[in-house]
Amino acid sequence: MRRSSLSKTSHMLQYMKNERLVTIFAFLSLAIILSPVVTQPVFADRYIVYEDKVNVKKEILEKTMSDLQAYPKIFPQYIQSVQVIDPQKNLAKMKVAFPFSSEWQVKYDTLADGKYAIEVTSGDLKGTKMTTTLQKIAGFNGTPNAGTKVRMDLALQLAWFYSMFISDDSIRYGLDLGLSKFENYAKTV
């Protein structure tokens, strides 16, 4: 019996040693496979076009959209602060509160063809560019040039992790909500 008990113990120790080696091998393999994902940022490119009409004159909407200092008033739950850091180079820093607090540096400009462009140059959405085109149209009551047709071309650079949870429809909804907030604010200035 004693020999049988030692044999069982020996087999049990060998089994535990093999299990430990298999576990270590599995963790190392997983670490090697996932190391590029963990250590190298991977971005998903999304290109979204959004168009709508607002009942605000083009000039007023353009002034509202290009006034970065007003963004914390227009989007108080999303943008905590804006600081223009170099007006000659059109650079600003934004403290943003979604999906978590972070800082973005942005470059903004009104292009020669009248389009308004903003590019995120640092932060979570680095490389993201949005170009907005405004066109005069009749207001909703038929008044000439009292409305604006808006087209937003968004080239979104989104970390792969976020891209799995954010659909194109939710991005379009966000653009719609943002334009609505611009419209409402423009009507008060």
Q: Could you explain the architecture of this structure?
A:
The longest helix has 38 residues, at 2-39. This protein folds into two domains: 1-40; 41-186, Alpha-D-Glucose-1,6-Bisphosphate, Chain A, domain 4, CATH 3.30.530.20. Helices cover 39% and strands 34% of the residues. The model is unreliable at 27-32 and 34-40 (pLDDT under 50). 13% of the residues are buried. It has a seven-stranded antiparallel beta sheet. It is built from five helices and seven strands; from the N terminus they run αβααββββββαα.
Largest sheet: number of strands, sense, barrel closure: 7 strands, antiparallel
Provide the low-confidence segments as ranges.
27-32, 34-40
How many structural domains? Answer: 2
The rounded distance between the terminal residues' Cα atoms is: 95 Å
- In angstroms, what is the radius of gyration? 27 Å
Structural class: alpha+beta
Percent range for helical residues? 25-40%
Order of helices and strands: HEHHEEEEEEHH
Sequence of strands across the biggest β-sheet: 1-7-6-5-4-3-2
CATH superfamily of the largest domain: START domain
For the record, the CATH class of the largest domain is Alpha Beta
